[in-house]
Amino acid sequence: MEQNKFERHTAVKTIIKELLTGEYVQEKENNPNYLLSSSKEKIHRLNVMGIILTKEILGSVVNILIDDGTGQINLRFFEENKIIDSLNTGDAILVIGRLRTYNQERYISSEIVKKIDHLWLKLRSLELKELINKKEEIVVEKEPVVAITNKVQETKKLVVEAITEKEIVKNKKEEIIEKEDNTEEEISDNVKEDILLPIEKIKKIIEEMDTGDGVLIEEIISKSPLNDTEEVIEKMLEAGDIFQNLPGKVKVL
Question: What pLDDT, on the 0 to 100 scale, is given for residue 184?
Answer without folding.
Answer: 47
